[in-house]
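Prompt: I keep going back and forth on a fold encoding question. Comparing notes only helps if you start from a blank page. Show me how you would write down a chain together with its backbone fold. Please set it down just below, with no commentary around it:
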Amino acid sequence: MKETECYSKAKNQNISLLINQSIPEKLIGDEKRLEQLILNLISNAIKFTPDGGNIDVSACLISEDDKKCTVQIDVKDNGVGIPKEEQKGIFDIFEQVDGSETRTYDGIGIGLALSKRIVEMMGGTIKVDSEPGKGTTFSFTCKLGKVV
């Protein structure tokens, strides 16, 4: 395991990154889209995690063959959480848990829908596991080519 820690100065949050060493060092994929996806999920975690909270990002190898690897990336926070009934449409475009005009968190509700599309284009799936008051974990898989 390779672990790195950093901090979100704006909210004094601890952000840790853990990469399983079984993931090949070089893989083939859409680097820009993968970066966009991970940054979107981390940005959401920062937004919905209180000052002093924790965000853990981890990557592990799920499977591999001669040509491809399936990697899973998790972004876990100890933020506000999402009620079960609100999780069903969370990956739909313009769907927000709190759609009221007085909501606490800004955003237009397009980030998770785009994240889902990017994941699907990379041959993977995305899911959410959350409980109010205990935080949220977004997990996605993607298929990446192996350097031969």
About this structure: The chain has three helices and seven strands.
